Fold:
Amino acid sequence: MRRPLLLALLSTPALRPLGAQPATTLAVLAEAFPPLQYETPEGLPSGYVHAFVQELLALAAREQPALGARPLQFVPLKRALAQAQAEPHVLLLSVARTPEREEQLQWLREVAPYRLWLYRHRSATTPAPRSLAELKGRNLRFGVQDQSNFEAWLRRQGIAQGSDNSRIEVVRQNALNLRKAQLQRIDLFAHPEISLAYRAREQGLNPEEFEAVLPIPELSLPLWLACSRGMEPPLVQALLRAADGLIAAGRLEALRRQHGLPAAR
Structure:
């Protein structure tokens, strides 16, 4: 059933006149997050969410012929969120739907699971905590990305606050924490399960050097496609219908498998 549905979706004739320019051009923004969306060594965007969005935009443009989109631009998440709030025609890839962001954006559809774990290097000599309650008062060093939700979460738990002897060590990019853990400069860091192996290999490290210690359920939220709060309803509905059609046709799961990932749980 899914293949005929997909063929029907993709065979709908485009309505834009030859050579016509789109009246509305979306900025498509994302933070690099392999294997969802990332830049290849050749400088090209790749990833299964990126591929899904390309198909989605093509379908939406058949319903809204004046709709166009610029190539995916990789920017820090903080900048992407700010731009989506300041401009009406921004599409964001793979964003966590947190309570703080709920009213800032229009939320389209979930595109990826996201499970955040505490990791450590297997050579670490400090006993691993057995629960989140054991993170405080043990003189542990936590590696965090600057202004990340993990850093904010640690501080909400009272870690490295007041009399707690823990330390929070900030880096510009979370991938740097893998090397710091290998060098025994930090004890624990948080990382999405889905991209740990990719980031380790990117740093010239063996993913097997790292072990998952504890999940952080509070920060393990699915990732969504989202768009500017001010985007016009007909455009939003076109994006939603395109996303729903592709998901119903099995394209999102097929693209996940093509990128070597198991089915979403």
